[in-house]
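Example 3.2
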Amino acid sequence: MKNKINIKNITTIGVGIAAIIGGGMVIYQISHIFPLPGVKFIMMSPYLSAAIFIILNKIKSHNGIMWLGGVFGGLMSLMSIYMGIAIILTTLTTHIAMCLLKNRPHEQRIYIGSILFSALAGGISLLVSKTLIGGVFAEIGMIWVLIITMLSAAFGWVGVRFGKRITKYIPNNL
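Structure, written as tokens:
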């Protein structure tokens, strides 16, 4: 597995992040129907996990999640510094977990990493909001953070299964 990034990988990451942001905006708007803290992360999990799995499957780099999450976090920091911090923390935590799985096949590592990214995105975002923003977020209990994390993981698993099916139809030369 290669560790360097090339033009094809940069393009894949760019198109993938554009798809994540575009789809995420739609899901974010729909999530306003449900007034529960963290529900947008649960709703976003299948889409986010599928997209991350497909992107990481295409770039096949050991540090792919760092490239993907770094660019994604940097772009989202332009919208909200707290969102950027949460994405970067999620990326670092996911990367560390994926490094612990280094003896596993690449597809298995990105399978687990994609689910973990979605799960941690929900939990870490709520924790960042709770600690850095405060206000109504300070009222969110740790049990709710855990519930959101677990539900995000479950829905993330569904997304990865879907992403795995999609990758069968994407040519290897793209």
